[in-house]
């Protein structure tokens, strides 16, 4: 199996045992790697109905065959599990340096079951693997624990770690590496905390075996000259390059999804202007392992900005990228970018998903503005729109599960259930997961992705992200009943990219044929665009089947009506838009060969994808 390390670790934390296992070659090729292969393994080895925070949930860290290879942007890894936030399939994707270096230990993945009797971390140095006591690390934030493990194990040590939020089983907790790179969504940090697993520390010196190394290296040199699409923006600004304009275009939601920039947040366009942010705050660029764009950056607040940033002078951290800046900015009518840098640092230290944490605070702000919550309910925090000091104060409470922060620490769905009093109207989520900063009223295909993908409320699962600049017959985005095949193609392409170990930004910046070409060179097997899309469809079906087996029919999941324009906005670029979700979903379901009522995949199509076992399982479940 060239291109794969061909083995993975299976760790039983209850028993304290570690086994080395090997992938079935056919399964690895069909599901590629990453969350594709992870979904198949969890489907096979985990019973339905397990408690997401119980010992029977399986927590997996996986890489793809292009992770750590000469491929462009081959630096991603994923975490998979049953999500405590949604109750269904859960995964989280991350860049940085951990994924490539994990492969350098000689492994493609590690899976954890059970629960350790005391705080524990896994130490992997090439073929040496052991569980070690982490009692001295428990209670430390993610940065502190990462630094402690690097000091303990020496130069070259890479760490995946939870902060206090994961330890406290916050359902919006994430897992961190590189002080600011996050496996952010699905509540994976809570699952790690539930197992008393503080961290994974690794050090490896092996290399990824490549079938045709000269060809792979030649492809890298060649394709690096063919960059296109979003490449210039990522190189110059990172995702902050679109932050300033996004609220005005209608891409990023405003005022907890109920507002419009033209009337509610006109200052956002200038306050978050890309050139202003770069000049005022950025110290240097930062890139993930072997990145060709280095879209990240380190920032600091250097001046008081005429008094506006006075309390943040000296704050230093990774820059607040698009999702974080919009979530802590436009969503809350907060035009103080310096405060979003601090919010980003706090989320990373506590180990909180920035999207969900900001969604929770935005929810509380909305409830406060409507009189559903009082200042006394909020522990005296004056959560008025745009109050960045109050945002930071409540963020600390969420991270510590302190006071009202305990109510918000499990996300807006559960917060609304606890509060009642009509707060449900302010709780913007799909299936329990807070929505990202891309508005379906601007990109209607996202409404279907947010509802029907196995991880609801996710913007990185396709939608209408188009890396084919030369694609002909691209349907109008408001053609609700005529773009199902188009959306399916893009969704399946993204599933392949997320499984192969490539960064989504690379996918949006290089020709689409880049990825099957690299996979062919790395594995020695012939990959085409057609085969790539078929693999992506297989991945879509196995993730989807995981949820169906858990009793989750995505067609029964509620999507907030404000998100799809019902009623439509009367101001801003998205004014007058109401998405026909029924027509759009039906077209997509038909193209995916999923039933329009039960969402079950068609048995014939599953057979064509060599997934007859799913057809048999679904038939048995109906009997």
Tell me what you see in this structure.
It contains 26 helices and 17 strands. With 623 residues, the chain is an alpha+beta fold. The chain folds into three domains: 7-203, Aldehyde ferredoxin oxidoreductase, N-terminal domain (Aldehyde Ferredoxin Oxidoreductase,  A, domain 1, 4-Layer Sandwich), CATH 3.60.9; 238-429, Aldehyde Ferredoxin Oxidoreductase Protein, subunit A, domain 2 (Orthogonal Bundle), CATH 1.10.569.10; 445-622, Aldehyde Ferredoxin Oxidoreductase Protein, subunit A, domain 3 (Orthogonal Bundle). Strands 2-1-6-3-4-5 form a six-stranded mixed beta sheet. A four-stranded mixed beta sheet has the order 8-7-12-9. A three-stranded antiparallel beta sheet has the order 13-14-15. Strand 4 and strand 5 form a beta hairpin. The longest helix is centred in the last third of the chain and has 21 residues, at 529-549. The protein is globular and about 60 Å long.
Distance between the termini: 39 Å
User: In the CATH hierarchy, what is the class of the largest domain?
Assistant: Alpha Beta
Task: Tell me, briefly, the overall form.
Answer: globular
Count of the separate structural domains: 3
Q: Please state the average pLDDT score.
A: 95
CATH third-level topology of the largest domain: Aldehyde Ferredoxin Oxidoreductase,  A, domain 1
